[in-house]
Write a structure and sequence with these properties.
Elements (H helix, E strand, L loop, with lengths): L6 E4 L9 H16 L3 E6 L11 H11 L9 E2 L4 H13 L3 E4 L3 H11 L4 E2 L2 E2 L16 E4 L9 E6 L3 E6 H4 L4 E3 L7 H11 L4 E5 L6 H11 L5 E5 L24 H11 L9 H15 L15
Parallel strand pairs: 1-2, 1-11, 2-3, 11-12
Antiparallel strand pairs: 4-7, 5-6, 7-10, 8-9
Helix pairs in contact: 1-8, 1-9, 3-6, 6-7
Bound molecules: glutamic acid.
Length: about 300
Amino acid sequence: MRQPPYIGRFAPSPTGPLHAGSLVAALASWLDARAHGGQWLVRIEDVDTPRCVPGAVETILQQLATCGLLPDAAPVYQSQRGLLYQQALDQLTRAGLAYPCGCTRQDIASALAKSGQARERHSELVYPGTCRVGLRDKPARAWRFLTTHVGQSTEVSWTDRRLGQQTQNISEQVGDFVLRRADGLWAYQLAVVVDDAAQGITDVVRGEDLADNTARQILLQRALGLPTPRYLHTPLVLGANGEKLSKQNGAQALLLSDPLAALNAAAACLQLPAASGTLSEALAQWTHQWAAQWALKSHGERFHHSPA
Ligand code: GLU
């Protein structure tokens, strides 16, 4: 069967300028799109408005442009797509797969303590399912996805192009996760799934710190009747302390007075050799090497995974 034409994306949250880690994801997704002869889109993930920093969008787009990473269409902004997310939530609610939740964090903690089953994951409590049976006069706060009624099992397996086979039992390890937050903001999981499908994304290439979200996103895609893209999670750039670089732990914003040096550092993280010459010559060399590294055939065709 013929594959749909390759469409990839880079989806930064404008919580600050790009740093060395986010440039790796940007470069990898750009190279993968170019090596497939596909399109590369940029989506600004500005749904979590309290975390957005004024001016960050302009800085990020400027940083990408300085590195020669130019999107094939105007960027889309999640803050303008609330209607699409609402439609998806309505669809899930009609299917009995989303429900309102009136629990505060304290309610969740005490329900878990009472049942002796307190489970935490990435400092988030695994929701015990209290409001599945209804709100019992509590006002609705958040909306959650019902993880146990989808087909037979909520164990989701998927194959990452770099990490290989992955499996997660969502109802046990994550629990009924949030689709719309108590503050009224759309949750990342719902927005990303709706947008990847609406933009026809065939390949998600992003940092390995996001790999853990993929099973939830696949579950949502199935519940909404949407296709599942291929996934490739790129290596993380570690700081001097051995921890993942992030804006939170003070990752240095990229100094783009020397974009080739910044790109060379990102390329090294992707196990691509150093490149010289002009920016576009370097990008062309890496595109070629990327295609060889991932054993890509001509665009649009299925390719084989070759572990890096
Ligand atoms: N907006 C997310 C971030 O900046 C990336 C989401 C994604 O690529 O799926 O971490």
